[in-house]
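User: Hi! I'm working on a homework problem where we have to compare a predicted structure to a textbook description. Could you give me the structure for the chain below?
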Amino acid sequence: MALKQLHLMIRGRVQGVYFRASTQREARRLGVTGWVKNRADGSVEVLAEGEEVAVRELYGWAQKGPSAARVERVETRWRSFTGDFPDFRITD
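Assistant: Happy to help. Predicted structure tokens:
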């Protein structure tokens, strides 16, 4: 199976709705590593890596997010797997 990394910028009503905590829970459930953080512009940024199938499933989840979120747009950039992340964390 292929290992991949995906960088996401998620825009809409995505802060103050438990998006980061929900992303962390979903990523850990899928066995994906990386991080999630709020950005000053009101978006949420995610860097996720792992098995391509799991990363794609996290991407699909991020297009909706938790129930209180209103995702308007998800920008994606696929990258090479690095193996730099021991788990999935919420960062500042």
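For your comparison, note the following. The two ends are 32 Å apart (CA to CA). The longest strand covers residues 3-13. Good luck with the assignment!
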